[in-house]
Amino acid sequence: MSRFHLVLLLHAHQPVGNFDEVFDRAYRQCYLPFLDPLERHPAVRVGLHFSGPLWEWIAGRHEEYFTRLRALVERGQVELVGGGFYEPILVSIPPADRVEQIARMERFLTERFGTRPEGAWLTERVWEPHLAETLARSGVGYTLVDDNHFLLAGFEPEQLFGYYRVEDLDSVVDIYPGLERLRYFIPFHAVEETIDLLRRAADEHPGGMAAMGDDLEKFGIWPGTHKHCYEDGWLERFFQALEDNADWLSVSTPGGYRRVARPLGTAVLPTAAYSEMMEWALPTPARHRVEELVREFAGRPEVQRSLRRGMWRNFLVKYPEADLLARKMQFISRHLAKRVRALRRAEPARLEEARTRLLRAQCNDAYWHGIFGGLYSPHLREAISREMIDAERLIDGAAAPARFRRDGLGAPKRDELYFTSGRYSALVDFCDGATISSLDFRTAGVPLVNSIVRRPEAYHAHLARASEPGGDQVASIHDRVRVKEPGLERLLRYDRWRRHLFRLMVFPSGKQPSDYAALELGEAPGPAGSPFEVKHVSGSGAELETDVSLDPVAACHQVRCAKRFRFLHAEGGFTASAAMQLALVGGDEVVCRAGIEFVVNLLAPAASDRYIAFGTERQPLGWQGVVRGDSLRFVDEWRRVAVEIVAPGAAEFWIAPIETVSESEEGFERVYQGSQVLAVWPLDLAPGREIWQAEATLRVASI
User: Fold this and answer.
1) From CA 384, how far away is CA 364, in angstroms rounded?
2) Which terminus of the chain has fewer Cβ atoms in its 10 Å neighbourhood, N or C?
3) Residues carrying an active site annotation
């Protein structure tokens, strides 16, 4: 009887912008020790995929790792697998960039290891049918998705012990179904249980194959797995068991198996990702319903595998912050394509750097959120934004004049205006209260609006049963519920508006700074979030206005709300200002308060070199309190940037940290997402004094 095959494809990745200490810890706890048992067991063959950011980090610090890995490749034990170099979700980036990402990985592996990759790792196993054309055009012979993709296409579980050919018009690519059960067994079940699982599969599918594609980080970085895999010896025992059962079990690389076995047939796969990703992508109410169905049909696997969940693109609807990043990345890609010929002729080195910055900005992590995705990690969002800022600055040139685009970031057209110069870029969303959704200091490469809406997440309901840190049980992170600190449920509060600049709040006089921090200001939605009409726009600013009600703050009162934005160069940087006016249109006297809101994120809430300065006092960025006066500064000495908020005539500033409770590999955690600042004025409108006016300015400069 021909032997059964186990095909292992392991994926290692660290995102663009991750902390150096995280790279280093992952290297020491996982990537390096994984080679030791692999070298001792030559019959164990694996496909390995390392993402470009990780390759670049290793190349800069551990050349010896390449030497060891090259030896494993040369003896046929390791097959290096390609993919998008900077680990993009391929369906989220323009087609030309997909091809370039895959080509860069191919060039890197060819130059470093002398081997051209036969297959490609598909980031987060996000598949859409048209990808077959991209992969085939890029010379990719195979990839791997989850069994979930096949089950949603109507396949039966017993049909998934081989690979299939997928076609799109005249394009062909082979696809392995990675078995979810293997993903949950390895390395979390006893070695004997895993071998028994493979033995049963071999008995039922003689000469067949079982494939597993998953993160290499589960062998050392996921909680408890370094001790489990290396100190307690699980991985050594597993590799030994694979060799001990070589009479009926062969461990193959994906390409190796493809050379000895034909595809089982042709498959047509729907848009899908792994099952957990598809659940994370759902809107929160829908995710609650799916979780209820999963519990209700816990004993009915045939029902569970038929449940239709979300798709990756849902993240761009669920999280407007991710959508903004994606649209800006796509805009820069189009912008670069228009300038390629001129830049290639005049400054080819600048063109190459701009293209690399753009490709780095396509790294997937900051565009989505689940246990893994990094949308809630401000340092990852900033890293992606910084790459975009640098790419755009390189395309336009440091001395670019002030200009604007009426269609904002372009296709698909949105209700926004985009202002740029060599020093700044600003995106005005005139349908969301005429606020600034993006403001970048190009000179320093710093995004200044880098926060996220605090919104209900499905996992917030799990906080009540979350355990405190600790515990020795090793389990998949999909099965763990932990918290990094007690009492996180007290931080669960949800924003009414997106975290933009220059939002106008009209609210009752009795409200206090504590109400603002608790998101209980009770502001009138009209001035805060209504659509505005653009009255005039030029390269240096715009004028917008709208007629709105002050309900419920002042019932039956109508006001005309006008905003005038100006963007000007200043010494060492630029200024962004908003002059605001409320004019009484109908109703009696209105006595309340008005506030102009700012959101600033310099990332480190407790670092001594980043602080809020006012008068002679300094406070850390995570501080909550009141500042009397009409100016204050946010200072980042590490990046040598200062942001001064000036609001002439304001009575005081109310300041509070924006903190989210999000889920990660380590459990539930508090994350500082920036500071919300409200400049507050008394507001008294009545016949004879029908107009209220105020102006607020951000002065941004290098220090």
Assistant:
1) 9
2) N
3) 124, 215
